[in-house]
Specification:
binds pyridoxal-5'-phosphate; globular; 414 residues; Aspartate Aminotransferase, domain 1; two-stranded parallel ribbon; alpha/beta
Length: 414
């Protein structure tokens, strides 16, 4: 019989756009004993998690809870529950994850209208607003922080127009939640989906989301399941177009997260512990301090990269604070560089997708990975690796420039 070794994963410095390192407090929380999902001790933890999510999403929405599954599970739950076949959906795309929104909306039977702009930039909100007036969609779905290109889309003006025209606005804030402001209510966002494995620094496996009463009204109008598909345990259902997924039916999920606790799936106990602990850490640090910490480490990293002589990728005016993209120098094998960083220094950075594959490296400064030690460690290692690959850089200038940023930084860093 084949024997398998004890599990012993290496201790990495993870500087990718997710998954990132996890605070030991979160790992500890995951090792606590299982509670039954209807045990009042557990349902209290669920309620506390909802309360903390409202604060992180900056909303007074009643509904703020996690969907079990990776971040796209929250996106899929939102779109599947809101889009009826034939609904017109507008999707402005400025990177890979815009295409994910498009693919999911297509699977929901939406009539899709897209708007595309060059990768490395974002939309002038006016352009999106013109498309909204032209296409008259029922729903607009857009990414806030596009990790494939390292760009961030301003949303407040788009939110205002969607509200005026009674259009639902669904936002993928998977990368931004917990790292930079995501002002659900102030920006007029109807549905916001976050991710755990990025700036919240919790393992992948849950997708917290929030939605307001406008979105809820649409979801509840669809609360029906065709005869034959209905779970006999579900309550009486009204007429409408059925939500095609059981697992991602937000009307059923909200019943489960409501005081009624109507049985749906079996909650992922250890992930709930992890999310609760991760959110507690975020709120203990304070949102403003946390955002400033992300901004400071980003500034130090960018100063280091540029002083070393490497080129940043993308329009600086719309840079995503937690993802920094570097142009791979001409003639250099980007994958060989990544392999050397991992093998010799235990540091992981990311490549990119589609038209950017082989063209850029992406460095994440997210959550628990977003630390002075990690930034300096990465810059020192990158300088060494660039020298090994014969790239003409200003040796040691990167680390010095980052140190200078930290000296001047106003935020206390680790
Ligand atoms: C912006 C964005 N949206 C959605 C996703 C999908 O998340 P997951 O891979 O956890 O399903 C990712 C993952 O990296 C992402 O960066």
């Amino acid at each position: 019989m084949k024997m398998y070794k004890d599990l012993s994963p290496s201790l990495r410095t993870i500087m990718t756009p997710g998954p990132v390192e996890v605070d030991p407090r979160v790992l500890r929380a995951m090792s606590f004993p299982i509670l039954g999902q209807f045990d009042p001790e557990f349902t209290d933890l669920m309620n506390e998690t909802m309360g903390m999510l409202r604060q992180v999403f900056q909303t007074s929405n009643q509904w703020a809870y996690p969907v079990d599954g990776t971040s796209r599970s929250g996106i899929e739950a939102a779109l599947t529950s809101l889009i009826e076949p034939g609904d017109k959906v507008l999707i402005p795309i400025y990177g890979r994850f815009g295409y994910l929104l498009m693919e999911i909306a297509e699977r929901c039977g939406a009539e899709i209208a897209t708007l595309e702009t060059e990768w490395g930039s974002v939309f002038d909100p006016e352009e999106v607003i013109r498309a909204i007036h032209r296409e008259k969609p029922k729903l607009v779905a857009i990414v806030h922080g596009e990790t494939s290109t390292g760009r961030m889309q301003p949303l407040a003006d788009i939110g205002k127009v969607c509200r005026e025209l009674d259009i639902l606005l669904v936002v993928d804030a998977v990368a931004t939640i917990g790292g930079t402001p995501v002002e659900t209510d102030a920006w007029g966002l109807d549905v916001v989906i976050g991710g755990t494995q990025k700036c919240l620094s919790v393992p992948s496996g849950m997708s917290p989301l929030t939605y307001n009463s406008r979105a809820e009204a649409k979801i509840l109008r669809r609360k029906t399941i065709e005869k034959g598909l209905r779970d006999p345990m579900s309550q009486t259902l009204s007429a409408g177009t059925a939500i095609r997924s059981n697992y991602f039916d937000l009307s059923q999920l909200q019943d489960y997260w409501s005081p009624a606790r109507l049985n749906h799936h079996t909650e992922a106990t250890s992930m709930l512990y992890a999310l609760r602990e991760g959110l507690r850490i975020v709120l203990e640090e304070g949102l403003e301090v946390r955002f400033a910490r992300h901004a400071l480490n980003e500034k130090a990293l960018m100063a280091g990269i540029q002083s070393m002589g490497l080129q940043l990728y993308g329009d600086p005016k719309c840079k995503l604070p937690m993802v920094t993209c570097i142009r791979i120098p001409e003639g250099i094998d980007g994958e060989a560089v990544r392999a050397m960083l991992l093998e010799q220094f235990g540091i992981e950075i990311a490549s990119s997708f589609g038209p950017l594959k082989g063209k850029i490296w992406r460095i994440g400064t997210m959550g628990f990975s977003c630390r002075k030690k990690n930034v300096l460690h990465l810059l020192g290692a990158l300088e060494a690796v660039m020298i090994c690959f014969g790239v003409p850089i200003h040796a040691a200038a990167g680390v010095q420039a980052a140190l200078q940023v930290y000296r001047e930084g106003e935020v206390p860093v680790e």
